């Protein structure tokens, strides 16, 4: 068994030739009625999604917001979901989409939550407080820190596009993470599919660093745009996330298969 | 009973003439031995701190990291802590120091966690994704959104000091929050005590907006520096936080009293 998250990612991506990340976002107002009366409704829904999609999945990415909405019960079902992936499919990467970021030692609490309690392989982080603050995450060389760089949402330009000497903030974040934060080879970046030109520039800046890419499908980003601009020198380096488009489909399996096929066809061509 | 968080804040500050916020950060490695064997150790510790300090407290501010470190159990004790404050001392403001920030509808989950499940009056937020993303928080006019502006940690300059046309990022955040985000008069800013000159400038930009001020004491910020530079035109507008300096003292009551006295003496002089 591989204990290092970076190696686990590379092994799974190579073995399956897949870049697909399935977002486990069990929005309580959207999960099918048949799960609602289960003792553990979010877990039951997630298990179904995982059973349907695991043969195509490089990674699963639960977003903590959907679980915290239900308080301690939701957190317990998040833990059970992570355990289900880790026991049934130990080769699949688990990314906790938590978008955390506090100062220094306070982050040890979030590290304990993500890496010890939930045993996640990776966590997403806000860059605003700087490297020194996030050092407790970066020190975990067995885990992955995935830093928000250019986010997929409309309105992300408000601060991310602020330019200093012609260079926008997202470019500075990409530079610093690639040059200064990634000393243990355990950093990745969040780069939205909705900003392909920015992705191209971030690829130039960061060499072969891997990007976690939200925003395909419902948010309007295209697979072709992502692959054209985001692939690294090894025709890899992308973890392409789909949440709603897969998990709330009638057949998550079919949607996952189609997305993997679309990615595969593009890379072959 | 006042249902609006902004009015609750103003009423408590006026009635007690206090600016003290006590950070409820029950780091498991630091809480006194006598609480460790309690069925609910973090709650038991917090209750003791609250019983000791409530007569001086404008606000209590639990940081979610210390509770999440213990998973669902910690979240349950966080909820019980909030409930204890809200039932025993309904006039005291509760600030969830969660430093959250996701895109659009995903934030509804965090709103449900902070405002509905925990019934917090306020939450701290990262600005990186912009106003449009954080709209679900800003739409809650009964609650307070406290946006990270200039954080107290060393290393905060990495991105916060990036200058565009001579204006650092923290200044742009202050401007945008004051001019564009605060349409429902429910925004505050986090401004670290460790950066008094920046605080002075942020005061100039934001008029009478209230600042949540961490960094006094253990982190090296001074009360005099904060009051000199941070008071608004009504000799108010500051929520000064102390965590470790109070909660891990032999007598939290005495430390809280001394800090309130120090603040009071300065304002009178």
What is the CA-atom radius of gyration of chain A, in angstroms? 18 Å
Report helical residue fraction of chain A: 40-55%
Number of discrete helical segments of chain A: 13
* Overall geometric form of chain A: globular
Could you give the distance between the termini of chain A? 34 Å
Give the percentage of residues in beta strands of chain A.
15-25%
pLDDT under 50 segments of chain A (min length 5)? Answer: none
- Main sheet summary of chain A: 8 strands, parallel, barrel
Q: Most extensive interface: pair and counts?
A: A-B, 57 and 57 residues
Order of helices and strands of chain A: HEHHEHHEHEHEHEEHEHEHEHH
Give the neighbour order of strands across the main sheet of chain A.
1-2-3-4-5-8-9-10
Estimate the mean pLDDT confidence of chain A: 96
- The quaternary structure here is homodimer
Q: How many strands of chain A?
A: 10
Structural class of chain A comes to: alpha/beta
């Amino acid at each position: 068994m591989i204990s290092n998250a970076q190696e686990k990612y590379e092994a799974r991506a190579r073995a399956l030739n897949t870049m697909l990340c399935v977002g486990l976002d069990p929005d309580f107002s959207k999960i099918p009625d048949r799960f609602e009366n289960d003792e553990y409704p979010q877990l039951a829904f997630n298990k179904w999604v995982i059973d349907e999609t695991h043969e195509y999945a490089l990674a699963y990415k639960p977003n903590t917001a959907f679980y915290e909405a239900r308080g301690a019960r939701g957190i317990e079902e998040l833990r059970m979901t992570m355990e289900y992936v880790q026991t049934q499919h130990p080769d699949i990467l688990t990314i906790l989409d938590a978008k955390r970021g506090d100062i220094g030692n306070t982050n040890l609490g979030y590290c304990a939550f993500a890496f010890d309690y939930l045993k996640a392989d990776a966590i997403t982080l806000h860059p605003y407080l700087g490297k020194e603050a996030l050092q407790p995450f970066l020190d975990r060389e067995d885990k992955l820190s995935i830093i928000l760089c250019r986010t997929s949402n409309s309105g992300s330009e408000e601060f991310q596009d602020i330019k200093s000497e012609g260079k926008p903030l997202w470019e500075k974040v990409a530079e610093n993470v690639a040059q200064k934060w990634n000393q243990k080879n355990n950093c990745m970046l969040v780069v939205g599919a909705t900003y392909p030109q920015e992705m191209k520039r971030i690829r130039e800046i960061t060499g072969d660093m891997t990007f976690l890419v939200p925003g395909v499908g419902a948010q309007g980003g295209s697979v072709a745009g992502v692959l054209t601009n985001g692939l690294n020198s090894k025709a890899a380096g992308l973890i392409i996330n789909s949440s709603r488009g897969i998990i709330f489909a009638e057949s998550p399996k079919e949607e996952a298969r189609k997305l993997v096929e679309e990615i595969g066809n593009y890379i072959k061509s």
